[in-house]
Amino acid sequence: MNASSLAKAVIDGILTGGVYALMAAGLTLIFGVMDIINIAQGALIVLGAYMSYVLSVHLGIDLFVGLVITIPAFFVLGVFIEWAFMRRLRDQERTAMSILVTYAVAIIIEGALSVIFGVDYLQLQAPYVNDTFHLLGFYLPYIYVFGFLLAVGLMGVLYYILYRTHFGRGVRGSLQNRSAAELIGVNVNRVRALSVGIGVSVTAAGGMVFGATNSFNPSSGYDLISRLLSIVILAGLGSIGGALIAAIFMVTLEDVVAVVWSPVWATLVYYASLVVVLSFMPNGLFGKAAVRAQ
Amino acid sequence: MTRSSRRGWMLSAAAVAAIAAFLAGCGGSSSSTSSAGSASSGSSTGASASKSPIVIGSSLSLSGDFSADGQAFEKGYQLWAKDINAAGGLLGHPVKLDIVSDASSPAQVVTNYQKLISSDHAKLVFGPFSTLLTVPSSKVVNRFGYAFVEGAGGAPAAFGNGLKNIFDVSLPVKDNLVPFAKYIASLPASQRPKTAAYATSDDPFTEPQIPVARSILEAAGIKTVYNKVFPAEVTDYTPIATSVATSKADVMVLGSVDVPTVSAFIHTFIQQHYNPKAFIATAGPDQGADFLKAVGGASNAEGVMYPNGWYPGYANAASQKLVSEYVAKYGGTASDVNADVAEAYSVGQAVAQAVAATHSLDNAKIIAYLHSPVTLNSVQGPVKFDSLGENGAAAAFVFQWQKGNQVQVLPTGASGSKAVEYPKPNWGS
User: A176-215 pLDDT, tens per residue?
Assistant: First the structure.
């Protein structure tokens, strides 16, 4: 191991962390707005990968251009999921019961994808998936760079919507005190449906990048959920910007350990870092209360 | 919560559960398969169909990490059941398969075999897919005194528990890479690689293969420049594959259990402009079109090698019949039939021969017979179990992707063998 390998591990960690942040953004947004832990996030990511696959292979639409179709489609899907599954959860039991209900959503999505596509592995293909550019002695894959930029851009948009718009104030107000929000004219059901729609729509982008950087089949989502949950917990549940920082921190740490020490210890260190941080900062790096107070 | 709201929620939950159960069933998370098609197959079938069926249970990974292999195994078992019923069944009774899904879970597979034997009253059981699931399930099956013939649990871990009921009809996995390693070691000094890298999943199927290959290559003077184990649950292979690329090893030996692992390494190698002279992966490239789709086409698969105990072109009459039947039933071409199908079919063949020889469904008699020095026939070739239950007569082949086709290249003298493409062309060429 030399300095070059270490530097490459850090670069890979930052770029891959961006991809994970993109996949985790919807998860943390939906929790931040509704206190719902969306176990279906992994399945939604895989669904996003399949939608990009269909557009790419059957209609010849570029993966990034296809987001113009998949993001609105996922917004509608998110609104439907909120209406069909999440709205019926009562406030007192919302978080606990959401795990069960969204797990059912994940099974439905997995089952439907298995019926339609079978269980064979796929990977999204485009010229920039394998192409790289040479910078400072390193080959950097375009797909990871594009994915990272997409993550930063979309999470910036999410942050702006939530914390710098009238709609965002309504979202946060309806969460903090539903009755008060309704008294001042906020349509809480509508705000929550739109919020889930936004969270799920971002997942379409995460799914596309995931599908371009990994092989996937209908059950691939289950491998993701524990890692994504770790990222949003470390970030502080509900923190959009924190998810980006936490993802980069955890994935970079894991990559460095894999290169410097051993891949076997990398996974352990990934989760151990979560335990260590939570020991000193129980609300995560960017705790929920502080974020919502912004 | 008010009574009306609770009722509303419960109705919603019930609806979700019902839809989920329906779709999961459609998706193949569990299934129960009878020997459809047997009733119209020959006069002997008519006689056997009138007798009570013999239920044979198996747990397969119809969803989860091993779903592609598990579903291929299901097809192999189904084809065997169809053929055995067409030939009159077992002892004149039709065979009925009872297949349940374990979702690739070592915990679920144990529960499944308990259920198959104690609740479903299966007379015989066939093994699951992978050593990972065979090890825990073999113990519970042994407690019931059942013979446990399987086709995909060939790692040493499956035979180190002192069980007398387990039999693997396929090639013992620790020997999988021997033909490849011996070929590389036999190259003239001027062509022989100087360095090798090894990376393997911590899976009981892959880990035993690497030290055997490494010892042969090191004995030939090929220096090890990278040798790491990675957890099976890894989702980001980039740092490991990049480290291999940085080592610039001439030979890369990958201990993989599935397509995503191999695909991730290949994509990283392409991105890092790393072109080893030889690249072999223990599993993944054997998945045919599935593998090609994941790596981005035949040009990225060119020269990739993998070991196996069977291939669709295997010169064996029963094997060719199996390939024809598979294509007729499931479509595609012969190259779409992967070794999982043959491994599963061989399980049925071994059990059928044991039942016929003992004239009994008594599992104790079947176990004793399989341990006797008898050589059985299968679509994978001869089967002769040693004292542990490993198939000591199994053939070891190495295959290579050449121009979009999987061709058998080692051993070089085998029927239909083609020349090894060495050194491997650059990715994408």
Answer: 777 787 788 778 888 888 888 998 999 999 999 999 999 9
Query: B297 with B193, same domain?
Result: yes
Structural domain boundaries, residue B211: 175-308+397-410
Q: Could you tell me the CA-to-CA distances from A149 to A145, A251, B170, B171, B331 in Å, in that order?
A: 6, 17, 49, 48, 43
Kindly report the CATH number assigned to the domain that includes residue B243: 3.40.50.2300
Cβ atoms of A19 and A147 within 8 Å: the answer is: yes
- Do B79 and B151 fall into the same domain? yes
Our count of domains for chain A comes to 1
CA distance A294 to chain B (A): 32
Number of domains in chain B: 2
Is the Cβ pair A263, B242 closer than 8 Å? no
In 3D space, the residue among B372, B339, B369, B338 whose CA is nearest the CA of residue B351 turns out to be B369
What is the distance between the alpha carbons of residues B131 and B76, in angstroms, rounded to a whole number? 18
For chain A, say whether B72 makes contact (Cβ under 8 Å).
Answer: no
- pTM: predicted TM-score of the whole model, two decimal places: 0.80
Distance, first Cα to last Cα, chain B: 66
**Quick check: A82 contacting B, CB < 8 Å?**
no
- Asked if B189 and B221 sit in the same domain, the reply is yes
Domain extent, residue A260, equals 3-292
CB pairs under 8 A between A and B: 172
pLDDT tens for B259-307 read 999 999 999 999 999 999 999 999 999 888 888 989 988 999 999 999 9
Q: Examine the pLDDT at B47 and tell me if it is beyond 70.
A: no
Chain B, residues 200-229, CB within 8 A of chain A, namely: 202, 228-229
Q: Is residue B86 located within the same domain as residue B145?
A: yes
Indicate if the alpha-carbon torsion angle B214, B220, B222, B224 is positive or negative.
positive
Average pLDDT of chain B is 87
Q: In chain B, what percentage of residues exceed pLDDT 90? A: 66
